[in-house]
Design goal:
841 residues; mainly beta; 22-stranded antiparallel barrel; 11 helices; 41 strands; 9% helix; 49% strand
Length: 841
């Protein structure tokens, strides 16, 4: 399939088409130069075609021209031009997170759905990883900020990203491009548009993205963070009459990559023991924390595979005063990730993650034609999804030596106090080995050195979930005067989840109750060993059961039901030179199950099976002005989330809890201005001031000894700490982007474009489970491109670079797995550059 696709690209490249242009009112096709900034931008943020200026919510629109000139190839690149949007890819391809205005979750724990919904041609993508495929022939990308639950329904409590692709046309044409660059980049994209009749047209698209890795795993010699992606798409448009159109889209996307690089941020005693030479340690390679650390040491390479495919059908029927729209879709996604979870050169543990999703959605809506004083939209949405999630975490060949080292050696004084017959059993051995020796005196099945921490032991998590979601919504506009329009919207949302777990723990050491070892009582010895060995219980050590409790069971139904009425109200006033608007809106995201090893029965340690829904409230005031040569949009807002679903990684699993209340106030400004014909200037800035108004159940961390003191009698720390009144991590105070585009006409045939972009993020703590002094990072990235286009030959050549200054930062940090006191981080991509050649026909 890959070879056939590449041959197809080569054939199409002999005659290919003009780049897609932004959707601008009455804008004819033209060469790829920036469209005049004063042209009216048309969006469908309210599921009706409207001018951006008249839409009374905060929307950032990225046109096809910007995507084209900035060489934006996926949603991760998009954040360079939309500062309030952040896209983070963590330790696997599937662990990708979207945030808007600092709000968002859903990475890592498969039970957590994102708070930022992604829609491609109106079709909801239920998991972030399924939206990572290379961008097809895009018409525009709309980023809707703030809760959008009233019109978009599912999982948009923080915002929505809507990708609108270019529809097939009834003119024969096409385009193709090839890019080559550093790290062995070879990237191809092509599409061909074929009119099959006067009423039927089809567009076929393909893209490949291949690149070598940008980081070296020094232990295996393999390059990590490579690209190996492939996409196919067919788009069929049938328009039998002027009032009826049917569009059917099928796509297939594949990712097969060695990802992702993880480096050390701080090596505590446990990690230092791994790297220390024998007999003082394991003598295995470890990543050495240093400035601009790109040192990766993994004993096995991380492998990620993702397949995503789907089909959708959209019917638009113009009934005169009204328009009926129906969108039906079915999607299947599957991803697998094999990861060296200790992120060192030692063979301590690895995980094999396998997920699959099957999603059916149906939306139907009726909208008025936008004429007259009163207009409306009503509709309904249904989503059915089945999820299978499985993770096998197993110990490797070095785990026993590691556990022996962490447990420490039996003190000589204690050996000397033992009866002479027992002293040889303990002298020179670890405390862990001594535990086995004593247990073996009572329980012969326990074999010293061969019972605990053996290769292949570990935990096997498997979950099956069925979900049904519904929403019924409506919104109406009334033009009070020629200048004042008021809008009201209402939606009823319901979500039903049925979940079942099948978790098997075959790590016998984690199954021990170290506070009451039964064999010790039989020998007349004190039985509380938690203070000495509790840190070695990587699974269920803080659980009285010391084992998983699967559900449904007699006490747990495995069901999670919820519903909510959300509403919105807007007032838009046309001042002539600008539109001013006021918005009040609410949002909702359904509750979720904790599909990780940290899932516990209700009331055990305070962390239950599930979390309650998120409820969002937004107050916003904005001003949108359009003037000769440009526009300026301003928005000030206060947004609060009650029951924010906090999903903190603790080093062995996810502590999923509801924060009482998290809020943020701030402002956004976006502008574009063309002072002269050959120069276009763009800028955007976002200011955020977040706060935990109430968060009394934040998971405890080892570095916060004030709020998480160790109980000397038990060796345990509290399960939670109180972060009320503090600033949430992950949310920077300032984010900004600026771009300048210079165009020049060398002749009637040759046109040139020079573009530079600067993306800035102020320093912020990346995550709350890592000390602030080692996890506070910002970002400063410079991108650039230069392009020459021939009108006569419909061809272009572009030289581009991303992160031109090779700025180093970390995307996130986290507690190193099973290495208390150590912390790891995920670095950003280094400088990449390339040359792109495009041809149209």
């Amino acid at each position: 399939m890959r070879l056939i696709g590449l041959l197809g690209v080569s054939v199409i490249a002999l005659a290919s088409g003009n780049p897609a242009m932004a959707q601008v009112a009455a804008s004819p096709p033209q060469p790829a130069t920036s469209a005049p900034a004063s042209d009216e931008i048309v969006v469908t943020a309210t599921k009706r075609t409207q001018s951006l200026e008249a839409v009374p919510i905060s929307v950032a629109v990225t046109s096809a021209i910007t995507i084209h000139e900035a060489h934006i190839t996926d949603l991760i690149d998009l954040q360079a031009v939309v500062p309030s949007l952040k896209v983070q890819q963590f330790s696997t391809v599937g662990q990708t997170n979207f945030t808007i205005r600092g709000f968002g979750n859903g990475a890592g724990n498969d039970g957590i759905e994102t708070s930022v919904g992604v829609f491609i041609d109106g079709v909801y993508r239920s998991r972030a990883a399924t939206a990572l495929n290379d961008l097809p022939d895009i018409d525009r990308i709309e980023v809707l900020r703030g809760p959008q639950s009233t019109l978009f329904g599912k999982n948009v409590s923080a915002g929505a990203i809507s990708l609108v692709t270019a529809r097939p046309s009834f003119d024969l044409g096409g385009k193709a491009e090839i890019s080559v660059g550093n790290y062995g980049l070879v990237e191809t994209r092509s599409n061909i548009n074929v009119p099959l009749s006067d009423t039927l047209a089809i567009k076929l698209s393909e893209s490949t993205d291949n690149r070598g890795g940008t980081y070296l795993n020094s232990t295996t010699g393999t390059k990590l963070n490579n690209r190996d992606r492939y996409s196919l798409r067919g788009d069929l448009l049938w328009k039998p009459t002027d009032t009826l159109s049917v569009r059917i889209i099928g796509d297939y996307n594949q990712i097969d990559e060695v990802c992702c690089a993880v480096v050390s941020v701080l090596n505590g005693p446990a990690t230092q023991f791994i790297g220390a030479p024998a007999p003082y340690g394991l003598g295995k390679p470890i990543s050495i924390p240093q400035r601009d650390n790109r040192d990766v040491q993994l004993n096995t390479d991380p492998v990620n595979r993702l397949n995503d495919e789907g089909v959708s059908g959209q019917i638009d029927w113009d009934l005169g005063r009204n328009k009926l729209t129906s969108i039906t879709s079915y999607r299947h996604s599957a991803d697998q990730a094999n990861t060296d979870v200790d992120f060192t050169g030692a063979d301590l543990a690895s995980s094999n993650r396998r997920n699959s999703y099957n999603t059916f959605t149906q939306e139907i809506r009726l909208a008025s034609d936008g004429k007259g004083r009163f207009n409306y939209l009503i509709g309904a949405f249904y989503d059915h999804e089945t999820l299978n999630s499985g993770v096998d975490t197993t110990y490797g060949t070095d785990i026993r030596a590691y556990a022996d080292g962490l447990s420490g050696q039996v003190p000589a004084a204690l050996v000397g106090a033992l009866p002479p017959t027992l002293q040889p059993l303990f002298a020179g051995h670890s405390n862990l080995y001594a535990l086995e020796q004593l247990q073996a005196l009572v329980t012969p099945s326990i074999v010293p050195g061969k019972t605990y921490f053996q290769a292949g032991q570990g935990i096997h998590d498997f979950y099956h979930q069925t979900q049904n979601s519904y929403s019924v919504f409506g919104q109406a506009d009334y033009k009070v005067t020629d200048r004042l329009v008021v809008t009201g919207g209402l939606a009823f949302l319901a979500d039903r989840k049925q979940d079942a777990s099948d978790v098997v723990l075959n790590d016998p050491f984690s199954s021990l109750n170290l506070q009451n070892v039964p064999q010790f009582a039989a020998l007349g010895l004190p039985g509380n060993l938690y203070g000495a060995l509790g840190g070695l219980q990587f699974f269920y050590g803080n659980d009285p059961n010391h084992a998983p409790v699967n559900y449904p069971n007699a006490n747990e139904s495995g069901k999670l039901n919820g519903s909510k009425v959300t509403y919105t109200a807007h007032a838009d006033y046309n001042f002539g030179v600008a539109h001013g608007y006021l918005t009040y809106s609410t949002g909702w995201k359904a509750g979720a199950f904790n599909l990780s090893s940290d899932s516990r029965p209700p009331d055990v340690n305070g962390v239950g099976r599930s979390v309650q829904p998120e409820n969002v409230t937004l107050y916003e005031a904005g001003l949108k002005s359009r003037f000769h040569g440009g526009y300026l949009n301003l928005a000030a807002f206060y947004q609060a989330v009650k029951g924010f679903q906090d999903n903190a990684y603790t080093g062995t699993g996810y502590a999923l809890v509801n924060a009482g209340k998290e809020s943020v106030y701030g402002f956004e400004a976006e502008t574009s201005y063309r002072p002269i014909d050959w120069l276009s200037l763009d800028g955007a800035v976002t200011y955020l001031h977040p706060k935990y108004n109430s968060f009394t159940m934040a998971p405890c961390v080892s570095y916060d000894t004030v709020r998480c003191p160790v109980n000397p009698s038990t060796g345990l720390t509290p399960n939670f700490r109180d972060l009320s009144g503090t600033r949430p991590a992950t949310i920077p105070t300032w984010t900004a982007s600026a771009a300048a585009t210079v165009t020049h006409r060398f002749s009637e045939d040759l046109h040139g474009t020079l573009r530079g972009e600067y993306d800035y993020t102020s320093k912020a703590q990346l995550i709350e489970t890592t000390p602030p002094d080692i996890s506070t990072y910002g970002n400063q990235s410079l991108n650039a491109s230069v392009m020459i286009a021939s009108v006569k030959f419909k061809a272009e050549i572009m030289l581009w670079a991303r992160n031109l200054t090779n700025y180093y930062t970390l995307i996130t940090t986290f507690p190193s797995v099973a290495q208390t006191g150590s912390y790891s981080g995920i670095p950003n991509e280094p400088r990449t550059w390339g040359v792109t050649i495009r041809k149209s026909f």
